[in-house]
Design brief:
This protein is α+β, with helices and mostly antiparallel strands. It has three helices and 13 strands, in the order ααβββββββββαββββ. Strands 1, 2, 3, 4 and 5 form a five-stranded antiparallel β-sheet that branches. A four-stranded antiparallel β-sheet has the order 6-7-8-9, with no helix packed on it. A four-stranded antiparallel β-sheet has the order 10-11-12-13, with no helix packed on it. The longest helix has 19 residues, at 18-36. It is globular and about 60 Å long. The N and C termini lie far apart (94 Å).
């Protein structure tokens, strides 16, 4: 009888694919440990972050994280780390917005980099606008916020958000480029042309309006 059982066991092992043996053992051990454990099982795999509300950007030794936090995602939390040093976070009110993009610049050539956080309205509709928050990192770890000057009525004519932000390094100029909408245009389909607004930064780190360039559709009426 013992000889028969030994032969049967050898036959079962020989018919089991070698690649499946380890998986079967691991699966059984995992199921057993779960069954015998009184603690909840926590997955080590983190859920992907929603980039509408969290963005990360690295530049040299610096790492910046921008988060929209709070019950209504109404606070912008900016934290910066340089090497092993973590700077105090900068928090400001930022309701009704989502994160659009983050980028780095040194517009005034003072060797203190600026981390720029661009946002857009959470509700996409006519009149939706974008904002830009610029954070200059000083040597002592102080985060200095600079706000973009408000758009004039002439600059906003035909504007419905969805701008692109371009740093023109040679000229140390920040370009805000967006499509123009005619009154009759749907939000998906701008036909009024294009406009760019240009900004510079002074020695104190203040963003200043410089000029605009527009290529508008002739004869079109824009809001």
């Amino acid at each position: 009888m013992r000889t028969y059982l030994s032969v049967l066991l050898l036959f079962i092992i020989a018919c089991t694919p070698a690649g499946n043996q380890k998986a079967a053992v691991v699966e059984s051990a995992t199921e057993q440990s779960f069954a015998n454990s009184s603690q909840p099982v926590v997955s080590n795999q983190e859920e992907p972050e929603d980039t509408n509300y969290v963005r990360h950007i690295e530049f040299g030794e610096y790492k910046l994280t921008a988060k929209l936090t709070g019950a209504g995602k109404n606070s912008l939390n900016v934290s910066v780390q340089k090497g092993d040093s973590v700077y105090p976070s900068y928090i400001r009110e930022c309701s009704g917005q989502r994160l659009a993009t983050c980028f780095v610049s040194d517009l005034n050539s003072n060797d203190f980099i600026e981390f720029n956080v661009a946002t857009a309205n959470t509700i996409v509709s006519s009149g939706a606008t974008g904002s830009l928050y610029s954070y200059e990192i000083k040597k002592n770890g102080v985060i200095r916020e600079t706000l973009l000057p408000a758009m004039t009525d002439a600059m906003k004519k035909g504007y419905r958000g969805n701008e692109q932000w371009i740093v023109e390094e040679n000229q140390k100029v920040l370009r805000r480029k967006f499509k123009l909408y005619l009154i009759t245009d749907a939000d998906c389909c701008p036909t009024g042309g294009e406009r760019s607004c240009f900004y510079t930064m002074d020695a104190d780190g203040n963003l200043l309006f410089k000029s605009t360039e527009s290529l508008e559709r002739v004869g079109g009426q824009m809001k």
